Each structure stands twice: as structure tokens, then as C-alpha cells.
Amino acid sequence: MAQGFKPCVITLASENEAHSDDEFTEKADGPGVYLIKSKEGRSQKVTNLFRLADVTRHSMARAKSRRYVECKHEEPELPQLSELTTRLKDVPIDFFSPDYWNNIMTVCERADCHAADGTYHVALPLEEFCGSWKECVKWKNLSDADFMERYGKEVLKEYDLPTEEELKQMEEWEVRYGYEDDESDLGDPEAEVNDLADEIQVEDAVMGLDEDL
């Protein structure tokens, strides 16, 4: 919000599950650091934007207080996957990397990600235009129509969208056989406790990124 991004961009960071649960690690020779965990399926340009916002937030905090001690975020030597694995639905299509979208997600999962009007929203241009605030300024204030014309259409070319035939087949399947959710309505008490702990762990990061964007 602090950088004046539109709601479509802010939704990239608005849910806990959009973030990795970075792990705090003590260091003997200085302040501890947060080891950045890899978020399965999240596009690199979204990760880069999150980190850009985080660095800016730390810079602003240092300028306001000489006593500010920064807890840095670093990539671990060996990649660590985030334990927050819930797949999001209410996010722009480019939250997901093209490879994950095209090769891992099912047609049904891809169909669930469209907006209420049946279209797929694009939040960011291609990765090359998201590397600095100087680049972001060139597109973040464009109208939705101008953004899609200049940048969004190129982004959508990287994603395999469900075809009309595939959507029709899914509708016929649901009418004929009904839809069964893979998850039990009763829920798993242990899983619910773990989910609550995960939400508490990333709450500060969510609030911070929401404000920074």
C-alpha cells in the first residue's frame, strides 16, 4: 500500500498462504537472520517483488530510528521448502510460475483461479520489468486496460488456459457424477492446530508486505 500499487498486486501478499514461513536462525558472529524458504509454485518475479518491498521497509525503518537493528533475509545454502502448502485460488494467474501452472496444476485447479467475470487477472509484467522500483513505476499506475495491452497479454502467453472443451467436459462430469471434495468436511484437529501455528508465524510478514506494496 505504501508504494501505491493497485489491489490486484496487493492480493499477491494478502493471504498467509502466499508467503513462505521463513525460519529465524541465530548467528554467533552477529544478528540472526531469516532463512528464506522456497514457496512451491510461486513465480520468481513475485518472490523478487516481496524481497524488494522488504528491503525498502528495512531502509525506511533505519532512517526513522538509529537504534533499528535489521534482521536480514538470506537464501540458505541448501533450498528449504515452505511448509505452507495450501494452494491459493483468489490470486492473479501470475502468482504461479508458468512451469508450475502448466505442468503441475490440474485443469480443474486452473479453472478455479479465474476471476468472477471468468477472466484471468495479471498483476505483474514479465520478470524483467519487476527488478527495481524504477522499473515498477513505469507500469504500476497504468489503467487496467493499458496494463493488459502493454504487458498483460505477453504474460498470459506463458500460461496454458483451460480450453472451452475442457471446461465443458468438467461441467458434464459434475452434472453426471456430482463433485466430491478431496477433503473431509469433518477436518483434522491436528492439521487445524498446525495451520493455526503457521498463520501466527507469518502474520507479521503478511501485514508488513501488504503495507509496503
Give the amount of beta strand, in percent.
Answer: 5-15%
Please summarize the sheet with the most strands.
3 strands, mixed
Please give the share of residues in helix.
Answer: 40-55%
- The chain-level mean pLDDT equals 75
Q: Count of helical segments?
A: 8
N-end to C-end Cα span? 4 Å
H and E string: HEEHEHHHHHH
Secondary structural class: mainly alpha
What are the low-pLDDT stretches, counting only 5+ consecutive residues below 50? 181-187
Overall strand count: 3
Q: What is Rg? A: 19 Å
Widest sheet: strand order?
Answer: 1-2-3
Shape: globular
Keywords, please?
single chain, about 210 residues, mainly alpha, 8 helices, globular
Would you summarize the structure shown here?
Helices cover 43% and strands 7% of the residues. It starts with 6 loop residues before the first helix and ends with a helix.
Structural notes for this entry:
This protein is mainly alpha-helical and 213 residues long. The protein is 43% helix and 7% strand. Strands 1-2-3 form a 3-stranded mixed β-sheet, with no helix packed on it. It is globular.
